[in-house]
């Protein structure tokens, strides 16, 4: 941006004319996916998170668009308690 003479990150159209993604758009997408990831994974020993998954209130981002199925119907693993 500096090489192109753009010193203000808010000049979105000028930045996009260079063929790159502007910083406000990158920040917006980062904020969205970061918070979705935190909500999705949370704490692995959280019964609240487990309950919301079981109630289908919580899932992967655009889960209905994903063709794979990640169900562990007959598999278990130990969860360590601290």
Describe the structure.
This protein has 82 residues and is an all-alpha fold. The protein is built from three helices and no strands.
Helix and strand arrangement:
Elements lengths: L11 H6 L5 H19 L5 H8 L28
Would you tell me the overall average pLDDT? 76
Unreliable spans are: none
Strand segment tally: 0
Radius of gyration: 20 Å
Strand content: under 5%
How is the biggest beta sheet arranged?
Answer: none
Which range best describes the helical content: under 10%, 10-25%, 25-40%, 40-55%, 55-70% or over 70%?
A: 40-55%
Distance between the termini: 49 Å
Structural class: mainly alpha
Give me the strand/helix succession: HHH
Keywords:
82 residues, mainly alpha, 3 helices
In brief:
This protein has 82 residues and is mainly alpha-helical.
